[in-house]
Design a protein that fits this description.
Layout lengths: L8 E2 L2 E9 L4 E7 L4 E9 L5 H19 L9 E7 L2 E7 L4 E2 H6 L6 H20 L12 E3 L5 E3 L27 H4 L6 H17 L8 H10 L17 H8 L11 H12 L2 H4 L23 H15 L2 H10 L5 H9 L5 H15 L19 E4 L5 E4 L4 H15 L3 H11 L3 H9 L4 H13 L2
Antiparallel strand pairs: 1-2, 2-3, 3-4, 4-6, 5-6, 7-8, 8-9, 10-11
Helix pairs in contact: 3-5, 3-8, 10-11, 10-13, 11-12, 12-13, 14-15, 14-16, 14-17, 15-16
Length: 461
């Protein structure tokens, strides 16, 4: 494959044009004639690899293609096929008719806070899924983030960017793009999924301020990433940022992996918490004006804070930060708790998620009743609760007191990192007893770790 004569075919795919070029290969727009599908094909030229390293990197290319092929997620570019033709290895993938985030930033496009939150929420959802599958991207940067015209984000090059020539050291170690690398990557140390979360922090900083947190030559960037803290984004951003945003970015860009967010889910929750309703003011709320919501008619249910908090908690895992607005809107019109959950379920598009939500709602509403007047509900009572022990029996949890909250928060920090205190503080305000407190905080832990956390709390000293 020479630069003078581009190929007309790669395997079964008919080449239609060039989408981009790099040091090691070319990305083509192509067509699968068998099913009449447009695809993007990323190529790597084997003849440009060092002869001693070619076999190693081509094996890695194939393995990473297989890993990326397992990632079926709406915010991840789909991988269809790996193939080889002459001196070219290629991967056929989903073709996205969109624009790279890098191009927007190069044009000095300004994103409003709701747009930034929407982009980061989708990115973190993709990473949460990938990390759960054991796949680490290692090169999160705006050039690998594609925005479709409708605002949908697609993450590209999962596990493939590792063999990009621009990302290799002299020994062939893949590092990532300098400005977005985590400190451990800069030092050539082993890294895990938390390096991706550091890179997300760099992307967030750039979206908020229009500038990268670490600038200069490659050597200067590496030194700053490892030893210097960037200016708080509030000092540079043209946006009016919520006060908590500076601390959130500082946590995302912590030098030590243990000081960062430990999971993409925790990062996403902290981001929504820091942004609060300010993030929604210019975005999603435009489709439903809260001022137009009718007042409660006489005789309808008066929901207490615990009921609304429970409904919001169940819904936020499915629809994100819009849950708060949807719950408020529905609570102003619902005649009882069952109707409230029915209204909320109507906003869930995925039938499986809607079924799970309705099943959870059935448990909440089994004892629901209509209150005759505001303030008629009895104050919630503290009750001791049971948790499973290692032997399979139940162990009574202590009442929800500060000592129990502090003890549980310490255990929660193992899974959520610094955000554990924020999660526990908010849960303590919502929970009626220790069991509900544990359930609330546990929902912020990934499914693989949640059982271990619950077991730890139930059998702790």
């Amino acid at each position: 494959m020479s630069e003078a004569a581009e190929p007309t075919h790669l395997g079964k795919y008919e080449i239609e044009g060039v989408l981009g070029k790099g040091a090691m290969g070319i990305v083509y727009k192509a067509r699968d004639p068998h099913i009449e599908r447009t695809v993007a094909i990323k190529t790597v030229r084997k003849d440009l690899l060092d002869a001693d390293l070619a076999a190693h990197f081509m094996a890695r290319f194939r393995n990473e293609a297989r890993a990326a092929g397992r990632l079926h997620h709406p915010n991840i570019v789909g991988i269809y096929e790996y193939g080889e033709a002459q001196n070219v290895a290629y991967i056929a993938m989903e073709y996205i008719d969109g624009t790279g985030l890098r191009e927007y930033l190069n044009r000095k496009a300004r994103f409003e806070l709701p747009q930034v939150i929407a982009i980061l929420t989708q990115l973190l959802a993709a990473l949460e899924f990938a990390h759960a599958q054991g796949v680490v991207h290692r090169d999160i940067k705006p050039a690998n983030l594609i925005l479709a015209p409708g605002g949908e984000l697609k993450v590209a090059d999962f596990g493939i960017a590792r063999i990009d020539a621009s990302n290799m050291t002299m020994t062939g170690m893949v590092m990532g793009t300098p400005s977005y690398m985590a400190p451990e990557q800069c030092r050539g140390l082993p890294s895990d999924h938390r390096a991706d979360l550091f890179s997300v922090g760099v992307v967030l900083y750039e979206l908020l301020t229009g500038a990268r947190p670490f600038e200069g030559s490659v050597e200067s960037i590496a030194y700053k990433i490892c030893h210097e803290d960037p200016r708080p984004p509030s000092q540079l951003s043209p946006l009016k940022l919520p006060p908590a945003m500076d601390n959130l970015v500082a946590t995302a860009l912590a030098k030590r992996p243990d000081d960062r967010f430990q999971q993409a889910r925790a990062f996403g929750f902290a981001l929504r918490l820091a942004a609060g309703e300010a993030a929604l003011a210019g975005g999603e709320t435009t489709v439903m004006n809260l001022a137009e919501v009718p007042l409660q008619p006489p005789g309808t249910h008066v929901f207490d804070d615990a009921e609304l908090a429970t409904a919001e908690r169940r819904l936020v895992r499915i629809v994100g930060p819009m849950a708060r607005i949807l719950v408020r809107q529905a609570s102003a019109r619902a005649p009882d708790l069952r109707a409230l959950y029915a209204m909320l379920a109507s906003h869930i598009d995925d039938p499986h998620e809607r079924e799970r939500f309705n099943a959870a709602a059935a448990g909440e509403t089994s004892g629901a009743h209509t209150l005759s007047a505001p303030g008629a509900s009895a104050a919630p009572t503290r009750r001791t609760t049971a948790a499973p022990t290692a032997s399979g029996r139940t162990r009574t949890l202590p009442p929800l007191e500060q000592a129990f909250i502090d003890q549980t928060t310490s255990r929660l920090a193992v899974y959520l990192g610094p955000i554990a205190k924020v999660v526990a503080h908010k849960a303590a305000r919502q929970a009626r007893d220790s069991e509900e407190f544990v359930q609330i905080v546990a929902e912020h832990i990934g499914t693989q770790d949640r059982e271990a956390f619950l077991h730890d709390v139930g059998t702790g000293d």
